[in-house]
Amino acid sequence: MRTSLVALILAATPLAAEPELEQTSHFVWERPEDYFGGWSAIEVMDGGASFIAIGDNAQIYEGKFLRAGNRIVGVEPGPVGALVDTDGTPFFQKNIEHIGDSEGLAVLSSGRFAVSFERFPRILIYGETGLPTRVELPREATGLPENGGVEALAVDNEGRFLAIPETAPKGTTGFPLWRQMRAGWETLGHLKRSKGFRPVGADVGPDGKLYVLERAFHLVGFQSRIRTFQPNEFHPDGEILWTSHLRQFDNLEGLSVWRDSESRLRLTMISDDNNLSVQETQIIEFRLTQ
């Protein structure tokens, strides 16, 4: 009798709707300059009106989207800038190979923004004026492979950096999630390795969740995935929010999570074309429905 009653109660209780992503934009961003491309990170601001993009050759673009309803139809023309080092010298003027390999991006509540560099592991914080300030990454980051450093950078609602390398250090169970504290960096846990996916972008959404963009490369092309994690209740598996079809999109590397005028979460991604004519700079946008 009790079993039947429980079954009736469960049957009458509506199940919570699973979150779904509805694609709203697939825009190919093109410009004629030779230096245009390689965009590896993006942050969307002002309710979807403006954005900052960082390229992996230390380029920066602060622009505005042109929209038709929910759809991105263009990017307002503007200059492509150059990131500078702590001495004020643009990276492209330095005769040190890969010193400007900028990969991760996080916008701070103060309006400043932070960039993580992969080949020479560090974070630089940029303001509207003055020279950037340097933040050291965890000591473990210095032992990562040359092309396997921190690609995923985010900042939580308390202003603390979250950083994830593209490569799992030797002897670990997965990709470490580092959080910067006043006394130094702490390891919240390790993202479980799965099906060849590697973390390449991250953002903390308005809901407080950590969204991690992952990429896998197969012989015939790229595949992307987004997992979500609760930093304060970390579980190595996280929750898979979305997985693309193989070759559905290009080399998606940057992720921004924000809230639109209807209070719905949006996820905007940008692809790194590796400065190759056979690839594209794609800006892909989804709306979270549930």
Descriptive notes:
This protein is mainly beta. It has one domain (17-289): Neuraminidase (6 Propeller), CATH 2.120.10.30. The protein contains one helix and 21 strands. Strands 2, 3, 4, 5 and 6 form a five-stranded antiparallel sheet that branches. The chain is globular and about 45 Å long. Mean pLDDT is 92; it is low at 5-16. This is Phytase-like domain-containing protein. InterPro entries: Phytase-like_dom, UCP031900.
**What is the count of distinct domains?**
1
- Number of DSSP strand runs: 21
- First-last Cα distance: 35 Å
Unreliable sequence segments: 5-16
In the CATH hierarchy, the architecture is 6 Propeller
- Tally of helical segments: 1
Q: Output the structural class.
A: mainly beta
SSE ordering: HEEEEEEEEEEEEEEEEEEEEE
Proportion of residues in helical segments: under 10%
Strand content: over 45%
Q: Write out the CATH superfamily name.
A: TolB, C-terminal domain
CATH fold naming: Neuraminidase
Mean residue pLDDT: 92
Features:
single chain, about 290 residues, mainly beta, Neuraminidase, 5-stranded antiparallel β-sheet, 4-stranded antiparallel β-sheet, about 5% helix
Give the gist of this structure:
This protein has about 290 residues and is mainly beta. It is built from one helix and 21 strands.
